[in-house]
Automatic annotation (TrEMBL):
InterPro entries, sorted: Oligpept_transpt, OPT
GO cellular component term of the entry, any: membrane
Keyword DNA repair: no
Cellular localization per UniProt: Membrane
Taxonomic classification: Eukaryota, Fungi, Dikarya, Basidiomycota, Agaricomycotina
Keyword Transmembrane helix: yes
Chain ranges passing through the membrane: 76-98, 110-128, 148-172, 179-197, 209-231, 238-255, 316-334, 392-410, 446-464, 476-499, 505-527, 557-579, 624-645, 657-673, 679-695, 707-732
Main location: membrane
Similarity comment text for this entry: Belongs to the oligopeptide OPT transporter family.
Protein name: OPT oligopeptide transporter
UniProt GO molecular function: oligopeptide transmembrane transporter activity
GO process terms (BP): protein transport
Keywords for this protein: Membrane, Peptide transport, Protein transport, Transmembrane, Transmembrane helix, Transport
Length: 759
C-alpha cells in the first residue's frame, strides 16, 4: 500500500522553532488549527463531535479519552493493596523466570490490567459491603483502584537490568553480592530514573503534546471498563468479543500452524532451495531473513509495530527506513563489505575468524583483564555484517535524535528550562486532563530530588561493597548525567510519536573508551548510562497514565515506589534461586529446552567485546570504527530537512514534505530488521494505513470509539493465550510439547518454508 498523497501529508511544525509545540502536531491535514477543543466531562461521548476527523496526533488524548473525574472515588483500599502487592509479586517472579527461558516473553501491562479487573470485580461482588465489611469493600471496583494496581504491578513486572547485571557477575565472574546489597542496588538503579522523571513532568507529562500514543489504548480500555452509559456498555461488549476472538485464534499460528506467523509466497515457491531468497524474503524463524513481502496473521508479532496506535507519520517514517534497509543490508552482504560472506547472514553473537563462536573468556586473565598473548593467539572477534550495519544505524539514530529535538523543540526546551519551569507547577499548560488534576495535591519536586540523590548515593555505595569498585563513583555520576540529558531527547520523541530509540550501543562504546580493558565496568555502565534513561521513560508513561485516569499524583508516587520495592525483592530472590540451581545450563551457549542464559550471555559478550577490546575494535581505523563514529555522523541527518522546511515558502509542498521526515526513526529502522523474526511488518503496513489513514479520515466516529479499544482487546487476548501456551506447551513449566509435523509445521524447513533445518 502506498503512502497517502502529498496533499494529505502531515506537518510536523508550522512556524519557527520558537513556537514549536504551540501548534499541534498534525497527522496529515494541512490546516493549522489553533482552537482548543471543548473539554466536557463526556467529551468522548459527544455525538456532535463523532464525525469530526482527528487532524492532529495529540488530539486523540482529547477526542478519544474522557476527562471525567470523580474525586470521591477511593484509591487506597484493601482491594488495591491486596491485588497490587499480589500481582506485583506474581509479575516480578514470572518476568524473572522468563529472563532465563529460551522463549522471549514478557509480562505486559495489559495482562496485569485484565487480571486485576477480573479479580477486582470479583472481590467487589463476593466480599460483603455492610457494616465493618465496608472497609474491605467500599463499593464497586473503580478506575482509580484499577489504575493504581496496574501501575504497581507493571512497575514490578519490568525486569530490572540491575538484576541481569548481578546475575552476569555471579555466572561469569564468580562475584556474588550479598542479598541486601543486590536488592538495594536493583531498587536504587530504578529509582534514579524515577527521580529524573519527576523533574521532567512540566515538559513530558503535563502538556497535551506529550500524549504517549501507545498508552491511549490502555486508558481507553480502563475508561470503557469503568465508566457507565450505553456507549461504554457497547464498548465493553465489543472489547470482550474481540478479546475472545483473538484468544481463540492466536493459538493456531502460535502452535499447530506456525506458517501463519510468516506467510511468504516467494518462500513457499522456493521451498528452501536458495540462500539469497531466504536472506531477503525469509522471516518465520529467528535470524532467518529480513522478511520482504512476508505477511503475518499472529497478533503477538503484529503488535510489535503498533499499527493501530502509532500516528501515521511515525509509521510511514519507520516503513521508509525498512525499505532502505532491504537495499542496504543486501548490498552490504553480497558486496562482501566487512568480509560479510565469511560469516552467517544474521546473528548478534561474536565470531572468531573462522566463523565459529568466539570464546571471550579465552583472552582474559584471572582478574578479567586482557592477556595480550592470549589475544594474539585467539584473535579479535567479529560481528556479522548485518549486525554491524544495525549498530551503526542505531547510533545514527541517536545522533539524529539529539539534533532533531534541539531543532524542532527548542522553543519548548527554552521555555521549560530557561524559566526553571521543571522545578515548579506548569501554570501555562492548558491540557484538559492536567486541568482536572489541579484539584489534587501535587508531589513536591523535592520528593523526586530526594529520591534521585538518595538512590544515587546508594548505587555508588553498593558499587564499593566487594572491596574493589565495580564501577568508580565518578563514572556513575558521569553516566547518570548522560542519562538525564538523553532522557529529555528520548522522552520528547517517545511522548509525541510513540517511538522509542535505542542508546545501548552508543553508551557501551563510550564506556569502552572511558574504561578500557575493564569488562565489568562496561557492564555496569549499561545500568547507569542506558537503563536509567529508559527507566525514566517508563516512569513518565506511568505518570501520564495517572493523569489520564485522574489518579491523585501522590497515589501514583506511592504505588510506583511500592511496585519497585516488591519487584526488587522478588527479582533478586527468584534470580539467585535459578542461578544457583541451573548454573551449568545458564553457562552453556545453547542451554536446554527448559533453561537458557542467552540474555545474561549477551551482557557478558558485549561487555567483553567493548570493555576488554573497545580500542582494538572501535578506535579510528580499527575494524568497526564506523559504529562509534556513526553517532557524530547522525548529528547531521535532520539539518537539511529542517533548513528546507525553515526557509521554504510556508505552506508549500516542499516545506511540508521536509517537516514530515523524522530522521531518527528512519535511521533506526534501516538497521531494525536483522533481529529475530520479521514476518509481521507488511501486515503492519496494511493495518496501519487502514486504521490511521482510512478509518481515521473516512470513519472518524468508529475510529474514536473503537480503534484504540480494538488494539487493547487484541493485545490482551493474544497475551493471555501466549501466557497459557508458554506453560502448557512451550516449556515454561519444564515440559515442552511439540506439535506433530505437517505441511504447515514442517520438520525439515523453517516455519515459512524458506530455510532448510537440521530437523
Amino acid at each position: 500500500m502506498l503512502p497517502s498523497p502529498p496533499s494529505e501529508l502531515p506537518e510536523l511544525k508550522s512556524e519557527s522553532t520558537t513556537a514549536s509545540l504551540e501548534k499541534k502536531l498534525e497527522y496529515d491535514d494541512l490546516s493549522l488549527d489553533k482552537e482548543k477543543f471543548d473539554v466536557s466531562e463526556q467529551a468522548v461521548s459527544d455525538d456532535d463531535a463523532e464525525d469530526e476527523v482527528i487532524q492532529n496526533a495529540e488530539d486523540v488524548a482529547i477526542q478519544v479519552l474522557s476527562t471525567e473525574d470523580n474525586p470521591d472515588l477511593p484509591v487506597f483500599t484493601f482491594r488495591m493493596a491486596f491485588l497490587g502487592v499480589g500481582l506485583s509479586a506474581f509479575g516480578s517472579v514470572l518476568s524473572t523466570i522468563y529472563t532465563f527461558k529460551p522463549q522471549n516473553a514478557t509480562v505486559s501491562q495489559l495482562f496485569c490490567l485484565i487480571i486485576a479487573y477480573v479479580f477486582g470485580t470479583a472481590m467487589a461482588t463476593i466480599i460483603p459491603s455492610k457494616g465493618m465489611w465496608r472497609y474491605l469493600n467500599p463499593g464497586p471496583f473503580n478506575i482509580k483502584e484499577h489504575t493504581a494496581i496496574v501501575i504497581m504491578a507493571s512497575t514490578a513486572s519490568s525486569v530490572a537490568v540491575g538484576m541481569e547485571v548481578i546475575a552476569a557477575l555471579n555466572l561469569f565472574y564468580d562475584i556474588k553480592l550479598s542479598a541486601a546489597v543486590a536488592i538495594f542496588q536493583i531498587f536504587a538503579s530504578q529509582m534514579i530514573g524515577y527521580g529524573i522523571a519527576g523533574c521532567l513532568r512540566s515538559l513530558l507529562v503535563y502538556p497535551t503534546y506529550a500524549f504517549y500514543p501507545t498508552y491511549i489504548s490502555v486508558v481507553n480500555l480502563l475508561q470503557s471498563l469503568h465508566f457507565g452509559g450505553a456507549l461504554n456498555y457497547k464498548r465493553r461488549r465489543y472489547f470482550w468479543m474481540v478479546f475472545a476472538a483473538i484468544f481463540f485464534w492466536e493459538w493456531i499460528p502460535q502452535y499447530p500452524f506456525p506458517l501463519l506467523t510468516a506467510i511468504s509466497i516467494v518462500c513457499i515457491a522456493d521451498n528452501g532451495r536458495h540462500d539469497w531468497i531466504r536472506n531477503l524474503f525469509g522471516a518465520g524463524s529467528s535470524n532467518e531473513g529480513i522478511g520482504l513481502l512476508s505477511f503475518s496473521t499472529s497478533w503477538t508479532l503484529i503488535t510489535q509495530g503498533s499499527p493501530l496506535v502509532w500516528p501515521l507519520q511515525t509509521q510511514v517514517n519507520s516503513y521508509i527506513g525498512m525499505a532502505i534497509g532491504y537495499v542496504v543490508l543486501m548490498l552490504v552482504y553480497y558486496t562482501n563489505t566487512f568480509n560479510a560472506r565469511d560469516l552467517v547472514w544474521m546473528s548478534q553473537d561474536l565470531f572468531a575468524t573462522d566463523g565459529t563462536p568466539y570464546n571471550a573468556t579465552a583472552i582474559l586473565n584471572d582478574d578479567f583483564s586482557v592477556d595480550p598473548a592470549k589475544l594474539a593467539q585467539v584473535g579479535l572477534p567479529r560481528f556479522t555484517a548485518t549486525y554491524t550495519v544495525s549498530q551503526m544505524c542505531y547510533n545514527f539514530s541517536l545522533g539524529a535524535a539529539v539534533v532533531h529535538v534541539l531543532l524542532w523543540y527548542w522553543g519548548d526546551l527554552k521555555k521549560t528550562f530557561g524559566k526553571l519551569q521543571f522545578l515548579g507547577k506548569s501554570d501555562e499548560c492548558d491540557d484538559p486532563h492536567y486541568a482536572q488534576m489541579k484539584k489534587y495535591p501535587e508531589v513536591p519536586h523535592w520528593w523526586y530530588l530526594a529520591v534521585f540523590f538518595i538512590s544515587l548515593g546508594v548505587g555508588i555505595g553498593c558499587s564499593y561493597t566487594t572491596g574493589k569498585a565495580l564501577m568508580p563513583w565518578w563514572s556513575i555520576l558521569l553516566f547518570t548525567a548522560l542519562s538525564c540529558f538523553l532522557a529529555v531527547a528520548l522522552g520528547l520523541i517517545m511522548a509525541t510519536t510513540g517511538f522509542q530509540l535505542s542508546i545501548r550501543y552508543a553508551v557501551q562504546i563510550l564506556a569502552a573508551f572511558i574504561h578500557p580493558g575493564n569488562p565489568i565496568a562496561v557492564m555496569y555502565v549499561n545500568l547507569y548510562g542506558n537503563t536509567t534513561a529508559y527507566q525514566t521513560l517508563a516512569m513518565l508513561q506511568d505518570l501520564k497514565l495517572g493523569q489520564y485516569t485522574k489518579l491523585p499524583p501522590r497515589a501514583t508516587f506511592a504505588v510506583q515506589m511500592a511496585g519497585s520495592i516488591v519487584g526488587a525483592i522478588f527479582n533478586y530472590t527468584m534470580m539467585i534461586t535459578i542461578v544457583d540451581n541451573n548454573r551449568a545450563a545458564l553457562l552453556d551457549p545453547v542451554g536446554t529446552r527448559i533453561w537458557s542464559g542467552w540474555v545474561i550471555q549477551g551482557y557478558n559478550s558485549s561487555s567483553v567485546a567493548m570493555g576488554a577490546l573497545g580500542r582494538e575494535l572501535f578506535s579510528f581505523g580499527k575494524p568497526y570504527y564506523l559504529i562509534a563514529f556513526a553517532i557524530f555522523i547522525g548529528l547531521a541527518f535532520p539539518i537539511p530537512f529542517w533548513l528546507i522546511h525553515r526557509y521554504s515558502r510556508p505552506g508549500s509542498l516542499v516545506s511540508k514534505l521536509a517537516a514530515y521526515i523524522n530522521t531518527p526513526i528512519i535511521a533506526l529502522y534501516v538497521g531494525y530488521l536483522p533481529y529475530s523474526v520479521n514476518g509481521q511488518w507488511w501486515s503492519c503496513v496494511v493495518i496501519g494505513f487502514a486504521a490511521q489513514w482510512w478509518a481515521r479520515s473516512r470513519r472518524p466516529a468508529w475510529f474514536k470509539k473503537y480503534n484504540y479499544l480494538t488494539s487493547a482487546a487484541l493485545d490482551g487476548g493474544s497475551q493471555i493465550i501466549l501466557f497459557i501456551l508458554s506453560f502448557a506447551v512451550f516449556g515454561a513449566s519444564g515440559n515442552a510439547v511439540n506439535f506433530p509435523n505437517w505441511w504447515g509445521n514442517p520438520a525439515n524447513l523453517s516455519v515459512d518454508r524458506c530455510a532448510l533445518t537440521d530437523s
